[in-house]
Specification:
Length: 510
């Protein structure tokens, strides 16, 4: 990991990634670490500053997360946000209490004493609060720099030791001057320097990958999605045709998908091999109704097909994966979490094939990967594609996957997507697709009774796929899509729109 950045201690805030993003937007590297990191581990990372995130706990709860108090003695500036402020106050001898009037949403912050955090800012502005506890007494040698109606110590600090705490959330866009406050902390208090820029990142990575790979070969499983494509183009820049891209057509793709991805990837100069494997996938899925069973079959078959193809490549030593930073953090935190769905990707491949991993985006967020993609001239059609799950249409046909059902679903899905693009709605939506339900309903077409299938349309907005809300599509848009699907897709006589959020539902139906 990079030195001279900001480390963010994670106390379980839903905004922890946002804090890291904001710091990077200011041109400074940031890394999220668990709150129980030891002072020694921190020292090794040589950060210029430390931020404590917020979190759902209350400091007086028995198992409330608390950092090692020696962190305050490292001589590295600390900024505690919300719970971060409270835990710092508590550990340093101040007092925190459950507040009678909780503060959620907008609050007016009033600065009562000068402080480097507020340099260049007005005396009063709006901030975003979300807390039930508040600081009642500040620790010794701490001062109060700002107040709000419900927080008598909304911003506190010890200038000598460079320890600061703020009750509101500077990382959310609803806080006015949030970015300026973070910038003041990083550049004025921590004396940080800009060390994070995407152009440099590309150059650095290209050099690093070239040195690592030498004249060996790198295999890449491409899907046409953002991460695998941008990763492949980057590695291609580093090692040229020592990169070998493999695209597996599992027969569960959308209409025209293989053709268009093949064309796009080839147009970018990627050495691509397309493997036509739909027969084996569909055969193994015959009679299988359970979603997890489908996922398992598809995942294992993918590994098998891919492995067979990769074995033909001599001198292959590396496997490229588009792992993103959130995947890295999440997989470190899912212990004991309940398993909702097994999300199939190319996991399992490297151990099995004895390949070393190359993961150039392990430190990046999705929009940073898009930024790199732009710098590498990758077409928007790829950079702004909706996520598409590994098991593809198989988890959008509820129950058994049959060839004739795939045909129906492909057509309906194509119409929906085409209309979204035509009306300029596609980019506002995180994911939109059609689902084929295993029921028939009665209809009447041209005075004749019909008894046909039902298509459900799903469109959601989301930031990371972890939570989602249904997208408010205009009624006349839905009307048009319904008409087109029923008129143009044989075997469908009813269209419904899914208005469930996640939670309690999930984005996919299976
Ligand atoms: P859910 O349905 O869990 O989906 O709310 C969240 C995001 O993950 C995608 N998804 C998958 N992706 N393999 C994948 O590669 C899977 O098995 C899988 N299941 C869901 C889903 O499309 C959404 O973007």
């Amino acid at each position: 990991m990079r030195k001279k950045g900001i480390i963010v201690l994670n106390f379980g805030s839903q905004y922890v990634q946002l804090i890291a993003r904001r710091v990077r937007e200011l041109g400074v590297f940031s890394e999220i670490v668990p709150y129980y990191i030891t002072p020694d581990e921190i020292r090794k990372k040589e950060p210029v500053g430390i931020i404590f995130s917020g979190g759902p706990a209350s400091v007086y709860e028995e198992d409330a997360p608390k950092p090692d108090p020696l962190i305050y003695e490292l001589g590295i500036p600390v900024l505690g946000i919300c719970y971060g402020l409270q835990v710092m106050t508590f550990q340093l001898g101040g007092r925190v209490e459950r507040s009678k009037t909780q503060e959620y949403g907008r609050a007016k912050l009033k600065i009562v004493k000068e402080c480097e955090l507020f340099e260049g800012l007005p005396e009063s502005f709006d901030v975003w609060m979300s807390h039930a506890d508040k600081v009642i007494d500040v620790p010794e040698r701490f001062e109060t720099f700002a107040v709000s109606e419900n927080s008598p110590h909304a911003v506190i600090g010890n200038k000598n030791k460079k320890l600061y705490g703020i009750q509101f959330h500077p990382e959310v866009t609803h806080t006015q001057y949030g970015k300026e406050i973070l910038a003041n902390f990083i550049f004025k208090i921590c004396k940080g320097q800009k060390n994070w820029e995407m152009g440099n990142f590309i150059e650095e990575k290209v050099k690093e990958i070239r040195e690592k790979v030498k004249d060996k070969k790198v295999i890449s499983a491409v899907s046409g999605g953002v991460d695998s494509t941008v990763a492949s183009v980057l590695v291609h820049k580093a090692v040229g045709d020592n990169l070998r891209c493999i695209f597996v057509d599992n027969g569960l793709l959308r209409k025209n998908e293989r053709e268009s991805i093949e064309k796009l990837l080839k147009s970018m100069g990627l050495p691509l091999k397309v493997v036509y494997a739909s027969k084996i996938f569909l055969e193994r899925l015959k009679g299988v109704e359970d979603p997890e069973e489908k996922r398992k079959i598809i995942g294992n078959t993918f590994i098998e097909v891919f492995e067979k193809e990769a074995e033909k490549i001599e001198n292959a030593e590396f496997l490229l994966q588009g792992t993103l930073y959130p995947d890295v953090i999440e997989s470190a935190h899912v212990e004991g979490a309940s398993k909702i769905k097994t999300h199939h990707n190319v996991g399992g491949l490297p151990e099995k094939m004895n390949l070393k991993l190359i993961e150039p985006f392990r430190e990046l967020f999705k929009d940073e990967v898009r930024e790199i993609g732009k710098l590498l001239n990758i077409p928007d059609e790829i950079l702004y594609r909706h996520p598409f799950p590994g098991p593809g249409l198989a988890i959008r046909i509820i129950g058994e996957v049959r060839e004739e059902d795939l045909k129906i679903l492909r057509e309906a899905d194509y119409i929906f997507t085409e209309e979204l693009k035509k009306k300029g709605l596609y980019r506002n939506i995180w994911q939109a697709f059609a689902v084929l339900l295993p029921v028939k309903s009665v209809g009447v077409m041209g005075d004749v009774r019909t008894y046909e299938r039902v298509i459900a349309l799903r469109a959601v907005e989301s930031v990371d796929g972890m939570t989602a809300d249904w997208y408010r599509l205009p009624y006349n848009f839905l009307d048009r899509v319904m008409r087109r699907i029923i008129n143009e897709v044989e075997g469908v006589n009813r269209v419904v729109y899914d208005i469930s959020s996640k939670p309690p539902s999930t984005i996919e139906w299976e």
